[in-house]
Amino acid sequence: MEGLIYNMKGLWFTELQNSGLKISCLANKTLHWEKTEFQEVGVIDTEIFGRMLLLDGVIQTTVEDEFVYHEMISMIALNTHPNPEKVLVIGGGDGGSIREIVKHPKVKEVTLCEIDKGVVEASEKYLPEISFALADPKVRLLIADGIKHIQEHENTYDIIIVDSTDPVGPAVGLFSADFYKKIDKALTAEGIFVAQTESPFYNRDLISRIQADLSDIFKVNKLFLANIPTYPGGLWSFSLGSKKHDPENVNKDNIPDLNTKYYSKDIHFSSLVLPPFVKELMP
Question: Concatenated DSSP letters for 55-109?
């Protein structure tokens, strides 16, 4: 597998995070590798982060720090919408976002639309603590193209979460203004959209463009942050577009306790407070 190198200290996985930055992790062994129709899917066991899911040699999630990403991409929207009964997740085949969404007492149905069944199968086998909620009765699993799915489901979902890989390969179309317009049509009248939008240190142009696109489409658009050690720079951004509801105007007393490890009632609001260098990316 690309990125795995043996040396005198053992097996090292190295991700080229950008043209000037690499991150390396000492690995105990390779658990899984396959080349699917869409990408290379790998799972390795690392010394520091435990089992790690890789797509095309890029870190997607690890059992050590995954809870931060999966809670934050889900909980801000879930606790902003007054009645999030029907939720769609595009991508996210590891099942971590699904695990968080099904915790919410108002959610009745979650559709996971993942283009690559290899990601789902590898996660179910090697990352059961992340993927176990895929078997929840609230969950409908579709192996399908997320862009096509939203085109066929106008005015359907209360929340749409785009839990995608980086904007390369099969995920390129998930970072476009045209896609966000389709999401707007697939949402109900009070709908909310959230997507992971990369690092404010290394992807500033991307974040700025996405925020500008969302401001043209949604009444409310926000950027919020979380600390994720295995992602480039350790500081990660999420973009939210809402037709009506503002996450900063949520009644704190109405946020349920949902057994989370990173997200909390206070984090809900503090994650929306942006450092000046990030705030300047907003339109």
Answer: ETTEEEEETTTHHHHHHHHHHHHHTTSS---EEEEEE-TTSHHHHHHTTSTT--E
Catalytic residue among 65, 163, 184, 213: 163
Rounded distance, CA 12 to CA 25, Å? 6
Angstrom distances, CA of residue 189 to CA of 45, 61, 79, 219? 44, 33, 17, 11
Domains and CATH numbers, the chain: 4-62 (2.30.140.10), 66-279 (3.40.50.150)
Distance CA 236, CA 238 (A): 7
> Is the whole-model pTM more than 0.90?
yes
Q: Are 54 and 44 in contact (CB under 8 A)?
A: yes
Tokens of 135: 């078997």
Predicted confidence (pLDDT) per residue in 53-100, tens digit: 999 999 999 999 999 999 999 999 999 999 999 999 999 999 999 999
Q: Which residues contact 138 (CB under 8 A, 6 or more apart)?
A: 102, 107, 108, 109, 110
Is 205 catalytic? The answer is: no
